[in-house]
Amino acid sequence: MAPTLLFDISHVDLDSEVRGVDFIETINPHRGCMRLLDGIICEDIPIGELLAYKNVGHDEFWVSGHIPGRPLFPGVLMIEAAAQLASYMCLQKLKDQDFMGFAGVDNVKFRGQVKPGDKLLIMIKETEFRRRRCVCDAQGFVEGNLVFEATITGMPM
User: Fold this and answer.
1) Which CATH number is associated with domain 36-95+113-128?
2) What pLDDT does residue 2 have?
3) Are 145 and 120 in contact (CB under 8 A)?
4) What is the Cα gyration radius of the chain?
5) Which residues are CB-neighbours of 85 under 8 A, at least 6 positions away?
6) Which parts of the chain register pLDDT below 70?
7) Could you tell me which of 2, 38, 46, 56 has the fewest CB atoms within 10 Å of its CB?
8) Which residues are designated catalytic?
9) Do 88 and 37 meet the contact criterion of CB atoms below 8 Å apart?
10) pTM
C-alpha cells in the first residue's frame, strides 16, 4: 500500500528548485558536512508545508564507516535533515529569532534504505506553531518509496 503523503505534491515538479543552498544558508546556520538540505522544491511558509531534497553523496563523512562495503545514510541524519527543514520554515515565521533548537523527535519509523547516489526528498507539515514551540510531521522518500517518518519538535533559542 502506498504511503499517505503529508500533503499533495501531484502538481509539483520534483526536479525543480525554488530555493537553493545560498538562500537556505541565509536562514539556517548549518554549514559544511552538517548542512543536510541541498534545495527547497516547494514551500508554503504560511501554512507550513515544505518539500526539500538532499543529494546523498558518495564522498560524505559517514560513507566509509557506516556499513563498509554497503554504506547506508544514517537514520539520525535523516531526522536531522527534517529538523533543518522545520527550522528553515519556523525561522521565516519568527523574524526576530536566528536559531531554532532541536527539542524532540517522536513517532520515528525507518522504512527503507538511503544510499550514496540517492536523492532524498524531505517533506514536512506543521502541526503546531507557537512562539516558543513548533511541531512538524516529517516524511522522507527515495524514488517514491517512504524511507522514514517522524514528528519533529523545535524551540527557538
Assistant:
1) 3.10.129.10
2) 65
3) no
4) 15
5) 37, 50, 52, 122, 124, 136, 138
6) 1-2
7) 2
8) 66
9) yes
10) 0.95
